[in-house]
Amino acid sequence: MTPSTPSTPTTPKTTGALATPTATANSAEPLDEAAYDRRRLRQWFAGEARAAGVARRDVLRLAGVAGLAATVPTLGGGLPHAHAVTPPGSAPGIAPGIVKPLPDDVFTVRGTNAETRFEALAATGHLTPASHFFVRNHTTTPRLDADTWRLTVWGDGLTGGAREFTLAELKRLPSTSRTAFVECAGNGRGLFTTQQGQQVSGTAWTLGAVGQAHWRGVRLADVLRRAGLARHAVDVMPRGLDDDYITADGTRLGRVRRPLPLAKALDDVLLAYEMNGEPLPPDHGHPVRVVVPSWIGIASVKWVGDIEVSATPLFSPWNTDFYRLFGPGHSPRGSGPLTRQTLKSAFELPWNAHFEAGFRHRLTGRSWSGGGAVDRVEVSTDHGGTWHRVRLHDVPRHGSWVRWSADWHPRAPGPTVLLARTTDTTGRTQQATTAHNTQGYLFDAVVRHPVTVG
Ligand SMILES: Nc1nc2c(c(=O)[nH]1)N[C@H]1C(S)=C(S)[C@@H](COP(=O)(O)O)O[C@H]1N2
Ligand SMILES: [Mo]
Q: Does residue 421 sit in helix, strand or coil?
């Protein structure tokens, strides 16, 4: 069958200037996003790529990204692009469109989203219960019936026609499970402003747009193979069943969807139907969501309804306008599409927590990285003068956070800051600042957590 709302295939007109590739790409490195991107764009302009719902604006953006702008004078200049903007005026504790309760002591509501308070995680274990898991909704949580839900896998990257799967069929396939965090690319965005004095667009999260769960489901690879994956497939694009996303300036971008290179799709990606041993709750993708370990949250499409499998590269606003780095400190052409998450540490404390002077206190927190397992965590209580390794309470694993604790015996009363930093197994360490990008993605600097001793 054909999916009810397929993207309209359009083939961009090819001109001599645009068809001339200026970049070379190594097709043997599908996970090198810059090379991937250049190759995709070349294919596009050669008429080989399908513009899956991509606006002209996005084509312009891509032209800039691949370094083709200079060859096409009409493409120069500042290109407008949409921003995810937090709708103003939501009442505390009420996020329009989120189904689960959002108690004030657990969540901070930010527009259509709910951020977990890190201090509330102190009461949780290695896994984040659904009751405490942050929610990032572009629109509203749809209420889907698991019995009538279908997953349609379709596209010219299949050997045959489209293939439908019921939930019961997915559950009959070999199941697999893993613990993984899901973290929004914008987690920590507010710190660009409060700590670095910089303007960024988007939801001003502090550090709580992250949660970790044990996900059970089927490997996306198994489903793709059963659907008849063709040898020439290059991209897959899962799409959610939630409403079309409309930007603040009124542009209708369609349903949330983001292409995934086939190499990642066949690696460790899950189609999850359980979270922490229970059916997925409505807000987290019921009945089935994609889980892309270590990658930015947008890759983990919730309420997945169809997956396009394409023989030609795919684009959506979520890998062109959004989820790239733009602005000072970055190439004027923007970065390639963001993939892995960066690394962070957070104390399980409220902002401006109060500590009694002259007593020993137990500080707890968590650290994680999309690049590798956590190697070590250090804490400084003297503004970075000295750093002390802390005790880890979990075995560090790739794609997973670790809890840690340290004792602190403050003597001098007054305001101060607590610092924590992690180093992952790739050798990366959190630094004092993060290079600015206009949409405030991938904040990973050491956070100066304000507290008072009194
Ligand atoms: N269909 C759909 N999938 C989606 C989103 C969405 O709005 N719609 N938000 C994405 C983003 S930006 C993030 S960070 C994660 C958040 O997952 P959670 O709400 O389960 O915490 O879901 C991703 N998947
Ligand atoms: Mo996100």
A: strand
